């Protein structure tokens, strides 16, 4: 074991986001409501602060904000999942809690030997073995929501049920839901031509599955599609997924790996998804593999991993014994055919010490000690009719700042994190320190900003765009500085502490 599990360094730990107590975290898994609690599992490696053979860690909550850690739910201890219990989903079936996950095995020939499958005529001959990796879909069940038993006849979907155009080593992340007494599953995949796909399966009992259909948007939409989710929202169907390596196009897909939503109609008979609209889910640097569930009140809530693959985060090098966190839960809504995101309302009960400034103008700088704090919510509504440039500096120190700027001549919003003494670097692209989007600055702009020690989530114009990002400030700057060229009129500026 290379990490000290007793001495986790608290410096960058969040106060109102879920993180592992120690070790490595990635994707949210099994997000569901069971036995009067929300359950959120996540990809977990307890023995280091880098990715390793995946376990499912488990946390429960009453309000989706404060989480209690439970014992590890699933470990990579079977022949079919011995190199990782990969991502998947959870739902209540009868009185039980069922988890579906991907068994990852990167030495398939041993697996065949273990299972004595070698003898089975046709299994090996029918497959051209190009990779020793196999991914299969598996089931685990629990009666109490604490202890999970893997189904004795796993996998429930084996390599033989994968259509021939799909790579058997890239077939993962099952999301299962019920519709009219039938079970449906959507799984992420990659074809032999390196094109991202999702596959649909259906089942009467959640155990025996039949292949239904597949969806792809072609090579310009990325290689593997990971962590898909499909749900109904305001009379439409929404399919969210995380496509790898979509090329950048202007403001779109600036991250190495992206997250997208397709909005349209899903036909349960044929498994066909008719796409009417598409959009990127988050404009920040650190947002991946989102998963949704229905809240107790029937709202669609999404949580994502607040990180990104192929980036260098300093927590591991600094030896802090933990790495990875989740975003705030966000309610999803449809407005004019577009998905919008709102911080889930339960965060409001943690607000304290409200301070408000209203109806004033900023020319040059605005700074106030009452804006300080490393754990806060800010709301601001401003108008740039008489200014050309407006910006906000967060985590402000002498040599550091996270800069959010609005440039009227370009109608552009830009988040810039180059001024950090512990920079987060893209391992593939140099100087990749800005994320931007177009915005109509002839209209008033409203921002809802959540800052939590080393993270920021910026909801623009009631969640039309969201920028989610991490920032590891060495100076631990707590001040916010506002700056305007010309007069920026502030309708209101409100700040709360979040406890
Ligand atoms: C997405 C992902 C999933 C996979 C998991 C492994 O971040 O690559 O596709 O199941 O992480 O940890």
TrEMBL record:
<keyword id="KW-0119">Carbohydrate metabolism</keyword>
<comment type="function">
    <text>Enables the bacterium to metabolize sucrose as a sole carbon source.</text>
</comment>
<dbReference type="InterPro" id="IPR013320">
    <property type="entry name" value="ConA-like_dom_sf"/>
</dbReference>
<dbReference type="Pfam" id="PF00251">
    <property type="entry name" value="Glyco_hydro_32N"/>
</dbReference>
<dbReference type="Pfam" id="PF08244">
    <property type="entry name" value="Glyco_hydro_32C"/>
</dbReference>
<dbReference type="InterPro" id="IPR051214">
    <property type="entry name" value="GH32_Enzymes"/>
</dbReference>
<dbReference type="GO" id="GO:0004564">
    <property type="term" value="F:beta-fructofuranosidase activity"/>
</dbReference>
<comment type="pathway">
    <text>Glycan biosynthesis; sucrose metabolism.</text>
</comment>
<keyword id="KW-0378">Hydrolase</keyword>
<dbReference type="InterPro" id="IPR013189">
    <property type="entry name" value="Glyco_hydro_32_C"/>
</dbReference>
<keyword id="KW-0963">Cytoplasm</keyword>
<dbReference type="InterPro" id="IPR023296">
    <property type="entry name" value="Glyco_hydro_beta-prop_sf"/>
</dbReference>
<protein>
    <recommendedName>
        <fullName>Sucrose-6-phosphate hydrolase</fullName>
        <ecNumber>3.2.1.26</ecNumber>
    </recommendedName>
</protein>
<dbReference type="InterPro" id="IPR006232">
    <property type="entry name" value="Suc6P_hydrolase"/>
</dbReference>
<dbReference type="GO" id="GO:0005737">
    <property type="term" value="C:cytoplasm"/>
</dbReference>
<comment type="similarity">
    <text>Belongs to the glycosyl hydrolase 32 family.</text>
</comment>
<keyword id="KW-0326">Glycosidase</keyword>
<feature type="domain" description="Glycosyl hydrolase family 32 C-terminal">
    <location>
        <begin position="350"/>
        <end position="493"/>
    </location>
</feature>
<dbReference type="InterPro" id="IPR013148">
    <property type="entry name" value="Glyco_hydro_32_N"/>
</dbReference>
<dbReference type="InterPro" id="IPR018053">
    <property type="entry name" value="Glyco_hydro_32_AS"/>
</dbReference>
<feature type="domain" description="Glycosyl hydrolase family 32 N-terminal">
    <location>
        <begin position="17"/>
        <end position="343"/>
    </location>
</feature>
<dbReference type="GO" id="GO:0005985">
    <property type="term" value="P:sucrose metabolic process"/>
</dbReference>
<dbReference type="InterPro" id="IPR001362">
    <property type="entry name" value="Glyco_hydro_32"/>
</dbReference>
